[in-house]
Amino acid sequence: MRVLAAMSGGVDSAVAAARAVDAGHDVVGVHLALSATPGTLRTGSRGCCSKEDAGDARRAADVLGIPFYVWDFAERFKEDVIDDFVASYAAGETPNPCLRCNEKIKFSALADRAVALGFDAVVTGHYARLEDGVLRRAVDADKDQSYVLAVLTAEQLARAMFPVGDTPKPRIRAEAAERGLAVANKPDSHDICFIPSGDTRAFLGAKIGIRPGAVVDSDGRELARHDGVHGFTVGQRKGLGLPGPGADGKPRYVTAIDPESGTVRVGSAEDLRVWTVTADRAVWTSGRAPEGPIDCVAQVRAHGGTAPAVAEAVGDGLVVRLREPLTGVARGQAVVLYRPDEVGDEVMGSGTISGAGGVDETVGEAAAEVNR
């Protein structure tokens, strides 16, 4: 096959491209310029799209003996990822920009251009596995990225390749060194790539501005003032602007955010427990929504936050009724559904969380329907 290897300048994408070459594919490397003002150097493991990253990707392509290009996707990245990120926080949501980048940039904009140029698939260094079109967790659980890939449609998965998902990260670094790739020991990037300072609140404040509101307790009593709901997320414990714990001596957490009134509600850890999750923009990796309720394991954060559940397609969205409560569930996050077998690594579908609530009396009914 003729495949396009997305090369970020890191070790994972370099080894993924190398494995595609080894498999006999006709490989072309491409680095995505996602920043309109790329820095000269990264700050340790923070940031991306620097001139250093582009240079590292080019050198890796040279070692592999494959053609290499740099494509400018900065404007598309700004519109589909950065602007979406800012708008979501302004609306009191907690978005995942990596998830949106995969959906809108790497497996939409990039893949569409690749297909238009005659390529059959896009190769990336994501830690996930594809087996007969089925998306699965990576072998290395600590590096697994199936959660942020669960927004991909069956059509997008059909033209994707994840060559490193079957290998633990230490072995990937060792392989890179064996191949003579200079990025073998390059630090992994983390946090939000377009906020190299790591100060998300300052970044959002500069974009959104001051929109004062109140921090209130569960009874609606005002406890403090704030400069904008973009500085908070459900489940947050620190940086609330409060002098100390609640009257009961226990920590307080953000339990709800109302962007219209600018109200941030805080409460106890128990107040964070939810039993029902609703989501919009459902994606089913099989290409079609299930008929009736299905048993699954729901995950609401990239690492952690899982519970057995019953899910059901409702229009273009889905409803997930949890058998065990989850905490820190925020609008804008993704809920990803995994098959509840002994392995539990197959992605069934996903949706963007639009709401969460307490005990739902239909949990038992849905569970009974599944078990019939």
Automatic annotation (TrEMBL):
Keyword Isomerase: no
Enzyme Commission designation: 2.8.1.13
Stretches for region Interaction with tRNA: 143-145
Site (Interaction with tRNA): 126, 333
Gene Ontology biological-process annotations: tRNA wobble position uridine thiolation
A GO cellular-component term linked to this record: cytoplasm
Record-annotated active site: 101 (nucleophile), 193 (cysteine persulfide intermediate)
Subcellular compartments: Cytoplasm
Domain tRNA-specific 2-thiouridylase MnmA-like central: 202-267
UniProt keyword annotations, A-Z: ATP-binding, Cytoplasm, Disulfide bond, Nucleotide-binding, RNA-binding, Transferase, tRNA processing, tRNA-binding
Region (Disordered), start-end ranges: 351-372
UniProt-annotated binding residues for ATP: 6-13, 32, 125
Catalytic activity of the protein: S-sulfanyl-L-cysteinyl-[protein] + uridine(34) in tRNA + AH2 + ATP = 2-thiouridine(34) in tRNA + L-cysteinyl-[protein] + A + AMP + diphosphate + H(+)
Residue ranges constituting the tRNA-specific 2-thiouridylase MnmA-like C-terminal domain according to the UniProt record: 277-353
Molecular function terms, GO-annotated: ATP binding; tRNA binding; tRNA-uridine 2-sulfurtransferase activity
Job description of the protein: Catalyzes the 2-thiolation of uridine at the wobble position (U34) of tRNA, leading to the formation of s(2)U34.
Recorded family membership: Belongs to the MnmA/TRMU family.
Protein name as catalogued: tRNA-specific 2-thiouridylase MnmA
Taxonomy of the source species: Bacteria, Bacillati, Actinomycetota, Actinomycetes, Mycobacteriales
